[in-house]
């Protein structure tokens, strides 16, 4: 069993990474159904929360069926982060997570996300401000460092633990790498093996198959794995990994019927949460990933992204299910380097 504050997780938990424009409540619902042990909201701007920005506030929505679930915030100002932590506290998630890892320009240019890796003293102050402003367990997600010459994650882990964080998730790249090249987990292992570290350490980056998950679990000794891009359009990845851990065997690839049922639930949740128009619109980004690998699917994907009524979309999904019934779907081949959502 792994504990984060008072949160009890399985012995080797699988976490769903917070992903901008992806890990909203509808997406989290289907990941929870398929084995995710701990999930996070999309990252939320501390400045946006304080300004009462509608989009930021909506990202605070969590539901009991998701628990345990964490709310992730980002920012570069101590007062704003402290105030945001109090706002999050009132929503009553299971934990508060701080993003010190997002590499995208619009975040970094504001001195937030991975930009804070250039100023560890500031990172410590921001973290301490949050810890002192909430009764929730505070965790952090970050990267190895700003660039190849400043991989300071061991120091970061020690200092953040000293000010009270309860777990640390580490993406095995620097900010300058963005999502290029392979994630380097050796420094994540250095953090885990540091005799000073007693909080759970979760590894993140490039886990896209049960074999790799088991290999990295054994090689690097982390307490759990955080999965982001590999779950997009394929929430079954969590249960596939768990089954492989237990048996050394693969679960059958999801049938077309199983895929369609998950798409339907995802769409229904999206419409319920965001309303019909926006729910349908934002669901469109997911169809290609769910239906990837089906032969001659382009025509149906095109229809899916043009229909505007839920009933019409459900009817088309039923048609797709019938047409592709019995089609053998091979093992999923996902090039996660083509996807750049996770922060």
What would you note in describing this structure?
This protein is an alpha/beta fold and 343 residues long. The chain folds into two domains: 246 residues, TIM Barrel; 68 residues, Non-ribosomal Peptide Synthetase Peptidyl Carrier Protein, Chain A (Orthogonal Bundle), CATH 1.10.1200.80. The protein contains 14 helices and eleven strands. Strands 3-4-6-7-8-9-10-11 form an eight-stranded parallel beta barrel, surrounded by five helices. Strands 1-2 form a two-stranded antiparallel sheet. β3, α1 and β4 form a beta-alpha-beta unit. α1 packs antiparallel against α11, α4 packs parallel to α6 and α11 packs antiparallel against α14. The protein is globular, with a radius of gyration of 20 Å. The two termini are 26 Å apart. About 2% of the residues have low confidence.
Helix/strand-derived category reads alpha/beta
The amount of beta strand, in percent, is 5-15%
Shape annotation: globular
**Strand arrangement across the biggest beta sheet:** 3-4-6-7-8-9-10-11
Number of domains: 2
Low-confidence stretches: 333-340
Helical region count?
Answer: 14
CATH H-level name of the largest domain... which superfamily? Aldolase class I
Largest sheet: 8 strands, parallel, barrel
